[in-house]
């Protein structure tokens, strides 16, 4: 298995784009956002990009991974970017993604849209209780139909999830970890359970 860590930043290309961006108060703001392109070896199967501190990334619009036809596992644990108000592109072959300890209080619901074959999503301590508060349509996990394992531990959730949150995972989800949250009421309905 091939792997890359730490020094992958040397393969990052930056392009500027003018586009709109959501602010914390959900207004639109136009500013100079950057699209990043990261070219990695096609033989790469595991990427450990944890604990990367991004001081010069600025306002991010998208991060596109190129050349990663075999990449299956990405670990971004504790990688520090300003927020999660951007999209990852090129994650079609990734099956395990760890983005724990991200700052997702400001969250683009399309962050993971390209990860269509994702089976395991780990997002511990990522401020999702704030980031998902306005996701009334359940867009964040929409289309991720292969997700079997979701770990949303320690995200300070207090309210129950909307029924639309896991709608794409009704036939695939096997394990949902919610340890260390603050739910007042807890109710998960499954069509499978209702019909048994």
TrEMBL record:
SUPFAM superfamilies cross-referenced by the UniProt entry: L domain-like
Cross-referenced InterPro entries: LRR_dom_sf
Residue numbers spanned by region Disordered: 11-30
Compositional bias (Basic and acidic residues): 15-30
Protein name, per record: Uncharacterized protein
């Amino acid at each position: 298995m091939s792997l890359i860590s730490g020094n992958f930043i040397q393969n990052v290309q930056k392009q500027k784009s003018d586009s709109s961006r959501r602010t914390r108060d959900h207004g639109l703001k136009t500013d100079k956002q950057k699209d990043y392109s990261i070219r990695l070896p096609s033989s790469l199967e595991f990427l450990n990009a944890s604990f990367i501190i991004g001081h010069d990334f600025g306002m991010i619009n998208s991060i596109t991974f190129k050349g990663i036809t075999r990449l299956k596992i990405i670990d971004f644990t504790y990688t520090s970017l300003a927020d999660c108000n951007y999209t990852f592109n090129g994650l079609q072959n990734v099956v395990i993604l760890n983005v724990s300890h991200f700052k997702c209080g400001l969250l683009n619901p399309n962050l993971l849209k390209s990860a269509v074959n994702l089976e395991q999503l780990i997002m511990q301590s990522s401020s999702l209780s704030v980031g998902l508060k306005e996701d009334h349509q359940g867009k964040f996990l929409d289309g991720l139909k292969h997700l079997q394992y979701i770990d949303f531990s320690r995200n300070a959730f207090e309210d129950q999830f909307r029924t639309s949150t896991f709608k794409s995972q009704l036939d695939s989800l096997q394990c949902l970890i919610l340890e260390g949250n603050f739910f007042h009421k807890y109710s998960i309905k499954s069509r499978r359970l209702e019909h048994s």
